[in-house]
Predict the structure.
Amino acid sequence: MTKIKSFLILLFIIMTCSLLTFKSVLAINMESPLFKIQYGEIGIAGGNKASDNYSLSDTVGQTAAGQFNSTGYIVKAGFQYLHSIIPFRFSISNTNINFGTLIANTPQTATTVLTVSFGAAGQYQVTAIEEGKLRTLNEANNIPDTQCDGGANTCSESLAKPWTSSSGYGFGYNMSGNDVPTDFVDSTYFRPFPDRTENESPAVVMSSTNVGKNRQATMTFKVNISPIQPAGKYQTIINFVATPSF
Amino acid sequence: MKIFRFLFVIFIFYFLFFISSKNINAQQVSLSLSPPLIETVIKPGKSILVAYTLVNYADPVILSTKVLPFQPKNNFGQIKIKEEFDGPIRFSLDNADFNLGQEFFLKTNDRQQLLLRIRVPEGAPEGDYYYTLLAETQPPTAQAEKTTSFAKATIGSNILITVTESGKVDIKPKIVLFEVLPRYRFSFFGKKINFFDSTDLIPLVLVVENKGKNLIKPEGQIILKGNFGEKAKFDIVSQNILSQSQRLITATPSAEIDCSTLSNIKACQSPISLVIHGFFLGFYQLSTSLIFGENSPQISASTSFFAFPLKIFVGLVIVLAIAVIIIKRFTTEE
């Protein structure tokens, strides 16, 4: 009896563990009562092949690539058309950039990593813009955009300058890594974000003409407040837009 | 025995807890959108349906989509997306459960097909219209515990639309710049003479302007000819040049340059079309011929440069000078 009990307990444990470790299986619905998708893409394999006499780029199972002609329109789309097997992909490693409790004259920094994978036409850009200044929720107070160290080292939305002085107040960013603007000479160079509420244009923070996979850049955010900055929790949204070229 | 059972139950609970627990990371966003580019030629009164695939590789996310027009920002292929929609083209999603501007939820590793309907109304003026389909995450609306900057991720895919009743397109290309970026440049009777050291990299810039109403796509080669009969060919990378704009055209690179250690060379100071490697000696001519599809005009341009082993020559002179000084000193001592 005890042997049967032990066996049942063991069986229960194995079944529970099996159920917990299962992963969902995805399937492609080709039809619903409301619509029918004629060209569902089921990529099975793909790549570039070559010999002395030919060169071929293929994606087995991809049905919507190439040039399509019909009466009244021509559409050019898909991986073969762009000679690409790497889709355009954009990642942000951390979307909540927390500065903690701000202390006057003590700069706080936080980082996030931007990653772009692209193998199509090759060129891409990532732009950034703030949707308003770092401000309290009641919008009564804000932290100004940085001007860096000021004087000869006054930075702008399009030109990074050194920001090392503890009396240089504001909010800005530095870029390092792949495909970043050349004015970010080292980790002490910063720019302020363009501000959408002031009708400024987004700044290009990553761009390249190279075909690449996993192009990575680190954005370092920096805040430094003055002793007269009112206490409060300040927030803003930085909008990153990644687009391939045309 | 009771203690054994109790320990056994504790073990099971711990075992199940460790299996079902997952690592907690910072909130991440990772999206892909394909195809990355659509080019279409449409007659007024027609519509097409394009199926995009949006994939979420990171944490579950709420997304929405929109279409905005763009214009070329510079001649490096960068774009400036406009804040407001304009133009005669009409866009909508044929998806059953949401449309443009409406939010939808995407789980980790989930994908969403976006069925974008592009409609050109009757009477739409002929010409080119450029748009970007954007899928953007919705940042949190809750108040943060500390001072925080929230990141909002937007991924785009460009749509190039040529509206034409007859199917004919307006092709008016012009080469506005085809030059090497030399180490030294002299002017001789009004003609520019470019000089390189024999071991220098040869950076070349080719900029083409499109003065027509429709986008064009150049095809062709850049050919290097030396005075000893040597010849090298570099294929142009076929890229769109939008209407009324210029673009730096790139050619198949002979090699990638690592500019992290070579920031002082001209090839790393500004975008270029091609870098040619090798040991050069004497006079060289570079030429290019471009076509823009069937029955299009062919345009061409050329430039030239001289290359001499200046560094080797200077080195030899220094070595000879030192040798002469040493020999003279020895002979005077004797």
About this structure: Residues 2-21 of chain A form the longest helix (20 residues).
